[in-house]
Amino acid sequence: MGTIRQGANGGFRGKTGSVIGSSWKGIDYIRGLSKKRTKAASEEQLIVQARFYAMTKFLMPITPILRLGFGQVKSDRMTPTNVALRQNIDKAVIGTYPNFELDFSKIEISSGSFIGGGATGISASLGLLSINWDVTLNTLYQSKADDQVIILMYQPTANEFMTAPTPPMRADGAIDITIPDHLLGAKGHVWIFFADRKGTKVSGSTYLGEVDLL
Predict the structure, then answer these.
(1) Is 172 helix (H, G, I), strand (E, B) or coil?
(2) 98, exposed or middle or buried, with CB in 10 Å at 0-12, 13-18, 19+?
(3) What's the DSSP call for residue 183?
(4) CA-based angle 210:125:211, to the nearest 5?
(5) Which SS3 state, helix, strand or coil, does residue 11 take?
(6) Strands 148-155 and 160-163: what pairing?
(7) How far is 166 from 209, CA to CA, in rounded Å?
(8) Which of 114, 118, 143, 147 could cysteine-pair with 203, CB 3.0–4.6 Å?
(9) Cα end-to-end distance, the chain, whole Å
(10) Rounded Cα distance, 110 and 193, in Å
(11) What is the mean pLDDT of the segment spanning 16-29?
(12) Three-state DSSP string of 37-102
């Protein structure tokens, strides 16, 4: 049984008849009860579903990073994770159905106009992933020495992600991250982006490339 809120002219929550009332981000909406599928999905539908699944499988484990990386994208009807999905599916899912793959160089883990880290370098040796960036501050963009530097590494063979235990600051200029033994001996893909200490300003992510994890 549905419950009417804010009087007769308000939205309602719950089931009444063949519809369900609900609310998301303060927006009242009504949807019909789901119906059982009576026919098989078309090939076009299967392609859309497969592309969506390929990107969702990659992005879901890094949801906390996406909340920061896409948190400043203005969208009243989409979560940061859904914004990330939308922006990445068309750009980074490649191949033909049913053998879709990801182009890691085109994946974005953040979106914003905050200034990044300029020239960056990356290498791996003796179980350490080493990354450096430009520490120059920019008055126009109001960058600060204590801006966060978010680093993400993905190792496809193990299907695992790795980040710095504690995000370094812009003023640090470099970081060495210990690579777990089980991730060594393969290749890793690395991204970086910058955010102010409150997470209210975010840069676009930069794909630093593929590195041998030695």
Answers:
(1) helix
(2) exposed
(3) G
(4) 5
(5) coil
(6) antiparallel
(7) 22
(8) 114
(9) 61
(10) 7
(11) 60
(12) CCCCCCHHHHHHHHHHHHHHHHHHHHHHHHHHHCCCCCCCCCCHHHHHHHHHHHHHEEEECCEEEE
From the CB of residue 149, how many other CB atoms can be counted at a distance below 10 Å?
A: 24
CA-to-CA distance for 150 and 205, rounded, in angstroms? 9
Q: What angle do CA 105, 111, 128 make, to 5 degrees?
A: 50
Give Cα 206 distance to the centre of its chain. 13
DSSP 185-211: TSEEEEEEEEE-TTSS-BBPPEEEEEE
Q: Of residues 7 and 153, which shows the higher confidence score?
A: 153
Find residue 187's DSSP bridge partners.
Answer: 212
Q: Residue 105 corresponds to which amino acid? A: S
pLDDT digits (tens, 9 = 90+) for 73-97: 987 789 999 999 999 999 999 999 9
Residue 189's beta-bridge partner residues?
A: 154, 210
Tokens in use for 78?
Answer: 């989409």
Omega before residue 167 within 30° of 0, cis? no
Q: What is the pLDDT of residues 173-196, one digit of tens each?
A: 999 999 999 999 999 999 999 999
Order of all β-strands in the sheet with 206-212? 160-163, 148-155, 187-195, 206-212
Q: Is the pLDDT of residue 113 over 70?
A: yes
Average pLDDT over residues 88-111: 97
Which residue is it, tokens 């975010």? 202
Question: How far lies 46's CA from each of 50, 87, 97, 161, 202, in Å?
Answer: 6, 20, 9, 28, 35
